[in-house]
Design a protein that fits this description.
Layout: H1 2-26, E1 35-45, H2 53-72, E2 76-81, E3 88-94, H3 99-106, H4 110-113, E4 117-127
Antiparallel strand pairs: 1-3, 1-4, 2-3
Length: about 130
């Protein structure tokens, strides 16, 4: 009987902490991610939307072409229109070094040039590459 009591004490004192160490080693490491600044651009209804329909279509085609150009350059990460009918017309999420670059690139948009759209620019932080994985 004395032997089984001593064996139990050995298991609790010696092996107990070992089990804790093994359990800690099995816990998954917390995922690490790096934050990065992007630029969120809200496209809003501009003051000059009185173009005739043919001109408006050409401006829109140029707007889409410009988005595709900036996406190919890696400057626009996400772009798209809003689905409701408010002054907020669309959004860009841009990867630029600073706000002046964002302004410069947005000024190349035919819809902004024509005054059909105006921009509202905000710095925005998220996980680098947009992933928390």
């Amino acid at each position: 009987m004395k032997t089984s009591w001593m064996l139990s004490l050995f298991v609790v004192i010696i092996l107990g902490p070992l089990n804790l160490v093994v359990a800690q080693e099995r816990e998954p490491e917390q995922k690490k991610y790096e934050m990065k600044q992007y630029w969120m651009v809200f496209l809003k209804t501009g003051p000059h939307r009185d173009q005739d329909s043919v001109t408006a279509v050409k401006i829109q085609e140029g707007h889409i072409a410009n988005i595709n150009r900036l996406a190919k350059l890696g400057k626009i990460i996400v772009a798209g229109p809003f689905g409701d009918d408010t002054d907020l017309r669309g959004i860009f999420i841009m990867d630029c070094k600073d706000e002046s670059e964002v302004k410069e690139l947005c000024s190349t948009d035919p819809a902004v040039k024509a005054g059909r759209l105006i921009t509202e620019i905000h710095p925005w932080w998220t996980a680098k590459g947009g992933s928390f994985k």
